[in-house]
Amino acid sequence: MKKLKRSARLVEMTHYLLTRPHALISLTAFAERYQSAKSSISEDLAIIKEVFEDEGIGDLNTLAGAAGGVRFIPKYRKDRALEKMAGVCRELEQPERLLPGGYLYMTDLLGEPRLMQEVGRMFASAFFDRNIDIIMTVETKGIPLAYAAAQFLNLPVVVVRRDHKVTEGSAVSINYVSGSTKRIQTMSLTRRALKEESRVLIIDDFMKAGGTIQGMVDLLHEFRAVVAGVGVFVESGEVDNEERLLHDYISLARLTEVDLRTRHITVQPGNYFYDSK
Amino acid sequence: MKKLKRSARLVEMTHYLLTRPHALISLTAFAERYQSAKSSISEDLAIIKEVFEDEGIGDLNTLAGAAGGVRFIPKYRKDRALEKMAGVCRELEQPERLLPGGYLYMTDLLGEPRLMQEVGRMFASAFFDRNIDIIMTVETKGIPLAYAAAQFLNLPVVVVRRDHKVTEGSAVSINYVSGSTKRIQTMSLTRRALKEESRVLIIDDFMKAGGTIQGMVDLLHEFRAVVAGVGVFVESGEVDNEERLLHDYISLARLTEVDLRTRHITVQPGNYFYDSK
User: Fold this and answer.
1) H-assigned helices in B27-95
2) Rounded to two decimals, what is the model's pTM?
């Protein structure tokens, strides 16, 4: 790379850091990349850090010493996340979203990459300190959420399949009972997709009683892996606590009321914004 | 937003532009955001433009006049994309990827968000001028590729399902014949997911004879929508031209040889890097 002026270097460094979240970059690497003294690089990083933190883009953590460097941790300020999710809740309350059986149509929202990025950054902000190795979801609608969170956490993704495909190689399958419909279903995960004793973050788009997520937890046991966190985009609040299979999770929105007759839907921000955990 | 010095403003503007690809941002909006004169904003943009173009991050197109502004078009320099894909091809050639039936295990690569981002930027670079309204893929493994391309093209994504789900509302289903296995399969798409006469970019992870993609094309006809482009991550070169159902597509890699006995696999960069289209 050719030697840049400070102004150009700030632009390039900002791009470099934003595309490498959670990666430790040594001052030496930056000094070589920009053919500049470490003292100049440190000054640049101080400017970037201030903007990132003031604007709620994330933290820039500096590690001192010979093995030192800098690490960009994407964040989403909770007050701004709440503001964003309040808008999403209003959209989810549109009566035309109501489907037969009391389900809510949200495929269009899950198809908006910019919204997925925002939600991914919220999950990244909620789970950044959980020491996670890999993110897991089940096909199909949780996939964009899992990848968006993974992008900001710099982690790989593994997708649990509803059926076993030849293109996945040998797999472990389990049966589980869907909490709300009480039907027995199957899910499977490729053997080579998950290392033993991994710490796993489970992400999904919707949770009712939690049967599907409990199925993923059971599947993880087969791999001797550990649940490091559970995050759902929307949870149904129409489940009483006894019926709920899972209690330790973060939700970004909560469907509190669906009236099939009047087509009135109420969606509120999820427990992430209210619980003290 | 508080008034920033030029150095801090450059950092903030870089982040602002990078997270809003293909959006037209007026100079007035920037001038108000940063409480700065348009002349200062123009100077900042000139610096950012030079870095983005020199480093192959993308183009910054300036539109003059009253309705003018600036638009960030993410790009991937073809020589660098080829270098990246050559490395991916070496990874795909590892003998342990060979599965029964001559399939190739690539779930791990598709689970790496950073690689998906790179591939998404390649697709965005290949299709940025096709006047696309929406990106379509079929579950499951094409989904991260479609979202990554969508992120850089600032477009929504629609996912074709293998079966019809209650959470999707009313849908159009078609039967199609898988080109390689000759089996009849079903795919369906929610009615409300696609506007009539949309221009659609089809993205998928793997193409053999092209039966699945041809199925998506047929499905689009039901919506009176138009195919604006087809992009696949890996195509199988083990199909002769007569057997191939689809001819106008871009591939990033090409599986040219699979020897089940010696477990020798050959993968080369795809037609994107060689064809003159």
Assistant:
1) 27-34, 38-54, 78-92
2) 0.96
Q: Are residues A231 and A96 in the same domain?
A: yes
Shortest CA distance from A99: residue in chain B: B169
DSSP-assigned states of every residue in B180-231: TT--EEEEEEEGGGS-TT-EEEEEEEEESSSHHHHHHHHHHHHTT-EEEEEE
Prediction ipTM score: 0.95
Do B70 and B83 belong together in one domain? no
A150 neighbourhood in chain B, CB within 8 Å: 113
A192 touches chain B (CB under 8 A): yes
- Are residue A16 and residue A64 in the same domain, yes or no? yes
Range of the domain at B25: 6-74
Q: What is the CATH number of the domain that holds B12?
A: 1.10.10.10
> Nearest CA of chain A to the CA of B55: how many Å?
8
Query: Is A143 at the interface with chain B, CB within 8 A?
Result: yes
| pLDDT single digits (tens) B175-188 | 998 766 778 989 99
CB B64 within 8 Å of CB B16: no
Q: Chain B, 193-252: which have a CB under 8 Å from a chain A CB? A: 193, 206
Evaluate whether A252 touches A233 at the Cβ level (below 8 Å).
Answer: yes
Give A32's Cβ-side CA count (13 Å radius).
4
Whether residue B14 and residue A19 make contact (CB cut-off 8 A), yes or no, is no
- Are A113 and B156 a contacting pair at CB < 8 A? yes
pLDDT tens per residue, chain A (277 residues)? Answer: 889 999 999 999 999 999 999 999 999 999 999 999 999 999 999 999 999 999 999 999 998 877 789 999 999 999 999 999 999 999 999 999 998 877 889 999 999 999 999 999 999 999 999 999 999 999 999 999 999 999 999 999 999 998 877 778 889 999 998 766 778 989 999 999 999 999 999 999 999 889 999 999 999 999 999 999 999 999 998 777 777 878 899 999 999 999 989 999 999 999 999 865 4
Among A1, A111, A155, beta carbon nearest to B157? A111
| Residue type (1 letter), B207 | M
Nearest to A107 among B99, B117, B193 (CB): B193
Mark residue A138 as left, alpha or beta (left: phi above 0; alpha: psi -120 to 50; beta: remaining): beta
A112–B12 CB contact, under 8 Å: no
Contact criterion met (CB < 8 Å) for A14 and B19? no
A159/B111 touch (CB, cutoff 8 Å), yes or no:
yes
CATH of the domain at B107: 3.40.50.2020
Q: Are residues B97 and B157 in the same domain?
A: yes
